[in-house]
Specification:
The structure is a single chain. This protein is mainly α. It has one domain. Helix content is 82%, strand content 0%. Helix 2 crosses helix 3 and helix 3 packs antiparallel against helix 4. The longest helix has 44 residues.
């Protein structure tokens, strides 16, 4: 009886680690969704609390391309209030992640000057949002738990009728 080689033991350890990481994926996606939803939703609440200041900022400081300041303020605030809720629930999660990516990018583009620390935050948010958009929002979402199974059943029953 041969004992396992160092390579075989290393491969077994690596397989165990990757299996554990695979099991942690839904929790990681949920943690990213919670964090991003809080960041963007609180920013939207801040804008709603003092709408006059929000309009002033969009008129004087934020230079959103192609939109008037009042339309940009409404669109940005609506995006910061609606999309985080969708992302948190995992309802149209990839759509929400893409929408928040646009809000994030416009925030960076519209500022004439942005502090390095603030830019780094926006980059972090962008990377997390891109990851959720590319890989999905995880198994612990309404999309995976409720919507996709129903859509798959409907598609299968539709194909069975043909």
């Amino acid at each position: 009886m041969n004992s396992p080689t160092l390579l075989q033991r290393g491969f077994a350890l690596w397989s165990g680690l990757t299996h554990a990481l695979d099991l942690a994926r839904p929790a990681g996606a949920l943690a990213a969704r919670l964090y991003l939803a809080q960041v963007f939703f609180l920013a939207g609440l801040t804008k709603v609390r003092d709408w006059d200041t929000t309009l002033l900022l969009f008129t004087e400081e934020y230079r959103v391309p192609l939109l008037s300041p009042s339309i940009a303020a409404v669109a940005g605030t609506a995006g910061e209030l609606v999309l985080p809720v969708l992302l948190l629930l995992g309802l149209a999660g990839r759509f929400a992640a893409l929408g928040l990516s646009v809000v994030n990018a416009v925030a960076v583009i519209s500022l004439a000057e942005i502090a390095p620390a603030a830019l780094q935050q926006h980059i972090t948010w962008g990377v997390l949002l891109a990851t959720l958009a590319l890989y999905g929002v995880g198994k612990w979402s309404l999309d995976c738990a409720w919507i996709h199974p129903r859509l798959n059943r409907t598609a299968r029953s539709g194909m069975a009728m043909n």
